[in-house]
Amino acid sequence: MGGPVIELQAVSKTYGDTAALTDVSWSVDPGQIVALLGPNGAGKTTAIALMAGIRRPSTGFVRIFGVDPRDRSVRARRAVMLQDCETIDFLSVREAVALFRSYYPRGMTVNDALEHAGLAQLAERRADGLSHGNKQRLFFAQAIVSDPELLFLDEPTVGMDVESRRALHDYVRGLRAAGRTVLLTTHDLAEADELADRVLLVARGRVVQDASPAQLKRSARSAGSWIRFRPTASAPINVIRGVPGVLETRTEGDQLALLVDNPGEVVARLVGLQVPLTDLVVEGPSLEDAFVAMTHEDGA
């Protein structure tokens, strides 16, 4: 049963004269959490639709568990939580999850899905009357009730409160520990950094990076690091701006933030100038820094 769970080879997708994806290839092995990132219009939702078998590629091929994603055997083993979903009028939360459970030959109990999604206390409430965040939890419960081997999550935590987000993150980590595979899209780069083993960065319909979050952050070090501290009223701001290695300065509340090329050298120069560095914090590049730098380089 070896081989990748997901495989795309030379896939392109066009809508009329518009190219949504152009010659993209990737594979995903069992037990990985992969974040598909990119600006709006980069092709992420199209990629999800192709992998889920909702749409077909214009050229190239997509394989899930080694076969066409529209194959009945695939549909029994994968589940999808799409970004744009609608509840079914007049059904309770429990009934809405039970309906999805009925579509699959195997899976978890409806009660277990409700518990994992944090909806046990809302099980008898009408689904169409839920808040946006609770509807997201409902859609998550409907996606996991089949206990899938492969789970696609398209912007899963939009509108969720902190507790719900943490519960979803914990569940997704549990899937990885069980050898299951998750592919998610998100605009929350901290979420991708926290969850993903690997990031596929897409811009203008092409894959521009395929690496771990740590590797992407290391590759963005040329963008610089941030030094933040609370300056005194007499701090020589103009002198600080002119310190060699300081690329940018900005005020953030009561803190001064400096973008620098070498934090150790800049801190030493500031100390030499007797600049008080109260509450000093040095931060390396974040996944957001890498995202901005790489999509900007691509012209997105």
Task: Write up this protein.
The chain is an alpha/beta fold and 300 residues long. It folds into 2 domains: 6-218, P-loop containing nucleotide triphosphate hydrolases (Rossmann fold, 3-Layer(aba) Sandwich), CATH 3.40.50.300; 225-283, Alpha-Beta Plaits (2-Layer Sandwich), CATH 3.30.70. It contains 11 helices and 13 strands. The chain has helices spanning 44-51, 72-75, 93-101, 110-116, 132-144, 162-177, 189-195, 213-219, 237-241, 263-272, 287-297, and strands spanning 6-15, 18-28, 33-37, 59-64, 78-81, 150-154, 181-185, 198-203, 206-211, 225-230, 246-252, 255-260, 278-283. A 6-stranded mixed beta sheet has the order 5-6-7-3-8-9, sandwiched between helices. The longest helix has 16 residues, at 162-177. The mean pLDDT is 89.
Named CATH architecture of the largest domain:
3-Layer(aba) Sandwich
> What is CATH's topology name of the largest domain?
Rossmann fold
Structural class by sheet pairing and helices: alpha/beta
Q: Share of helix among residues? A: 25-40%
How does the major sheet shape up?
Answer: 6 strands, mixed
Mass-distribution shape:
globular
What's the CATH class label of the largest domain? Alpha Beta
Mean pLDDT: 89
Contiguous helical run count: 11
- Poorly predicted ranges: none
From the N-terminal CA to the C-terminal CA, the straight-line distance is 39 Å
